[in-house]
Design goal:
Layout: H1 3-23, H2 25-31, E1 35-38, E2 45-47, E3 51-54, H3 56-60, H4 64-78
Parallel strand pairs: 1-3
Antiparallel strand pairs: 2-3
Helix pairs in contact: 1-2, 2-4
């Protein structure tokens, strides 16, 4: 795994947190308790019991609004 991509995904996630705090505070508090894994093992994004898996190429190709939607969507699968 390219560590540069992992860093970029983590930076994007940190940026999105401020927007989620304003629009979806409940979802953000829920996301904070989930493990987020950056992996090429999934084509887009996916969830398990306590983990969200994110494909870095897919996620970095999304604009911030789309990436926020993906996080909310995946979190609601678990909720």
């Amino acid at each position: 795994m390219d560590q540069n991509k992992v860093t970029k995904v983590k930076n994007k996630l940190n940026l999105l947190r401020s927007g989620l705090m304003k629009t979806y505070p409940f979802i953000l508090s829920f996301l904070e308790n989930l493990k987020i894994v950056v992996t090429e093992a999934v084509p887009t994004a996916g969830v398990s019991k306590d983990t969200i898996a994110i494909n870095p190429d897919y996620f970095l190709g999304l604009n911030n609004r789309e990436a926020e939607f993906v996080l909310v969507h995946e979190a609601l699968h678990i909720a």
